[in-house]
Amino acid sequence: MDHEPTQALNTDGISIASLDTPIPDTNIGYRMLQKLGWTEGRGLGREESGRTEPVRGGESAGLRFGVGKAEEDSLYTSEENITRRKLETEAQLEETEEQARQREMKAEHQEKIKEVVKEEMSTFYCELCNKQYKTAMELETHLSSYDHHHKKRLQEMKQMQSERTKGERQKREKKRLEKEMAQMAERCKRARQQAEQSLQGGSAGGGGPAAAAAVPAPVPEQRQAMAFSLGGGARRGGMATRGARGGGRGAPGPKPGLAAFALDSDSDEQ
Distance between CA 69 and CA 77 in Å, rounded? Predict the structure, then answer.
């Protein structure tokens, strides 16, 4: 590191490698290749297909680019790549009738080919797994795979479960309908018995249907309790109301005059 050059390098006894001057036999790499079986003038590799001449580039090869750069540049600057490619609609506007007819025939032919291929490929389609295969061997391999059999068993299990739940649901619906029919029959029976009892009670009172129709409507209990809310009148009024309720079907209800008289008698006693 302390050495300082005092004069230019003397290259008189030094051989400088170049594209025109091959590597001498005194070179270490040259001798190593000879030990590996290489002979001068032949390419490298088992089949000796390597290059025997160095790759020239730059100004020595008449180019101003690197290796392969000139070819890439000429590709991008060629006339067919400079001009924009016409769209399908633009090409159809400029084509003749014969070209249009040929284009339509070609399109129909392609569609027919696609339909035939689709029909043929449908034989290699697994609907259960929703998978499309190209050959029969691929389809057979899939049909014998664990994935396919697992999905098949899962589908069968779902079908069995749905049938079981459907049967249970039908049984529950049948029981519910039977219960509703029994309740309806019970209500009809009770209504019939009440009607018969009312008819028998009316005939025993001596009025028949006319007597049953002549029974006055019961007075609401809440209004009678409010009318007798002073002193013992409320108690007597409540007793009168209970008596009116328990008097039977043919008994007349309490009269307003009697209730007023009971209130006056209570005030006189006080």
Answer: 12
